[in-house]
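User: Design a sequence. Structure:
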């Protein structure tokens, strides 16, 4: 009795956290496997990342209720990295990315990720979502997906036409479509039924249907946990000398960090408990990725789906996310053969549904009505990721966001007062930058050449070097025609 009271005093929310951990485990299990298969790595490596995210990162300080693991948002980047550099080098990429995350956290750079344009982040997620949907429709059709994002989209009609003459492809498509249908309709079921998470129910029903009907669909290949964990060999670290690999490491670092910290901000809005400490959370994420890298597993980020499930299930402390990692470990150790019964098109359906949720259709419509510049940044970022690649697409989005901000910040107003006698008064106010220079010069050059001009710059908040030089050159040219020199008035 005394021991029970001692346990309750040390862990006053153990009951709530225990129940929440089971819910998160059931949500995480099919997603861990699905993300791994879509990333082109053994299914067990997704479980390894989920275990590390739960136990290692879960024990660290940062965000108390956020849950980490393999994320659909990193699928495209991981697949490209494995295809280009090979599976052994993936561990090196994840390890170095984790080291950089820890360094950024220790240097207190975590808060700067909050300054990234929301439109760029949403555009990044939308682009990832589109590539995931297009890519996963191929395993749903029992077909091999093309390499590039554009080919995945353009070759889809042909893949669907080919499927109609293939019994296996039609069976696979039926399983994927059924999985998506269960996910969409699960929220309409009675509350007692919804106690089982939708992703688990969808995969479970698809597995049962495939087994009972003896459908000719592909299933997950099982290697066993120990057979899948392959620490990167020392020779793989030599790849770090290449610029291509370093660019991939930077992409992993920035995208995983941004996704984790934006997820933290979203999770903080779901509960009234302790707020996220961004720098510590970055250290925790980096530590988890370092462990994943050493084990040769997938990179991890905080995942909003699992985190929201954790909060909604009543979790109160970080014990819930640690316990969910323990349940994943027990499953991977004791029941790995169960994975071999899961149909691949069911996992494709899970990821198609997850990819669709990454595309902010409603947000884009609202942005287009209220902030068209932001909508343009979002759309260009998404299209660039599909057309080019993940890293370049994000860079294009960031560059466009900077240009848009600079353009909007460089508001300048030119007022001309001509009383008919005396000098023409020209007043510039606002922010005069090179972006607005053509407009400024066009207005000044339209002033009468035979009249003295007084150009008042005292209303300017900012005057960059390009504008100052151009205005001085215009003043010299205007004064050269025989009128009084242009008088420039600046702020005291």
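Assistant: Done.
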């Amino acid at each position: 009795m005394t021991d029970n009271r001692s346990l309750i005093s040390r862990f006053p929310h153990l009951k709530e956290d225990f129940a929440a951990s089971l819910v998160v485990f059931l949500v995480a299990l099919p997603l861990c496997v699905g993300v791994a298969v879509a990333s082109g790595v053994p299914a067990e490596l997704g479980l390894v990342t989920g275990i590390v995210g739960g136990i290692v990162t879960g024990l660290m300080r940062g965000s108390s209720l956020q849950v980490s693991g393999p994320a659909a948002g990193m699928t495209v980047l991981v697949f490209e990295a494995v295809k280009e550099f090979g599976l052994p080098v993936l561990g090196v990429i994840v390890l170095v990315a984790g080291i950089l995350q820890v360094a950024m956290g220790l240097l207190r750079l975590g808060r700067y990720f909050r300054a990234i344009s929301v439109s760029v982040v949403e555009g990044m997620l939308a682009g990832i979502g589109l590539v995931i949907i297009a890519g996963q429709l191929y395993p749903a059709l029992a077909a091999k997906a093309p390499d590039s994002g554009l080919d995945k989209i353009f070759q889809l009609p042909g893949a669907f036409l080919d499927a109609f003459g293939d019994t296996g492809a039609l069976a696979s498509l039926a399983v994927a479509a059924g999985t998506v249908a269960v996910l969409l309709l699960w929220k309409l079921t009675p509350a007692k039924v919804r106690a089982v998470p939708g992703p688990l129910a969808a995969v479970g029903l698809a597995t049962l249907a495939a087994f009972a009907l003896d459908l000719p669909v592909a299933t997950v290949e099982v290697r066993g946990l120990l057979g899948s964990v392959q620490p990167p060999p020392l020779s793989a670290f030599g790849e770090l000398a290449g610029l291509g690999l370093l660019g991939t490491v930077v992409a992993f670092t920035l995208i995983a960090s941004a996704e984790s910290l934006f997820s933290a901000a979203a999770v903080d809005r779901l509960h009234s408990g302790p707020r996220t400490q961004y720098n510590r959370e970055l250290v925790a994420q980096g530590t988890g990725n370092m462990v994943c890298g050493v084990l040769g597993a997938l990179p991890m980020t905080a995942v909003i789906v699992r985190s929201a499930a954790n909060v909604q299930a009543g979790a109160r402390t970080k014990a819930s996310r640690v316990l969910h990692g323990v349940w994943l470990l027990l499953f991977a150790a004791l029941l790995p053969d169960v994975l071999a019964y899961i149909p691949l098109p069911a996992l494709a359906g899970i990821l198609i549904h997850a990819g669709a949720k990454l595309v902010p259709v409603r947000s884009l419509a609202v942005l287009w009505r209220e902030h068209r510049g932001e909508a343009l940044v979002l759309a260009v970022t998404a299209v660039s990721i599909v057309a080019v690649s993940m890293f370049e697409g994000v860079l294009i989005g960031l560059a466009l966001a900077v240009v848009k901000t600079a353009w909007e910040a460089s508001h300048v107003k030119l007022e001309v007062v001509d009383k008919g006698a005396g000098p023409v008064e020209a007043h510039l106010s606002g922010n005069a930058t090179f972006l607005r220079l053509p407009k400024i010069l066009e207005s000044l050059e339209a002033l009468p050449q035979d009249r003295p001009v007084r150009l008042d710059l005292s209303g300017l908040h900012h005057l960059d070097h390009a504008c100052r030089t151009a205005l001085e050159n215009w003043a010299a040219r205007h004064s050269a025609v025989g009128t009084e020199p242009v008088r420039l008035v600046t702020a005291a």
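DSSP finds 21 helices and six strands in the chain. The CA atoms of residues 126 and 359 lie 4 Å apart.
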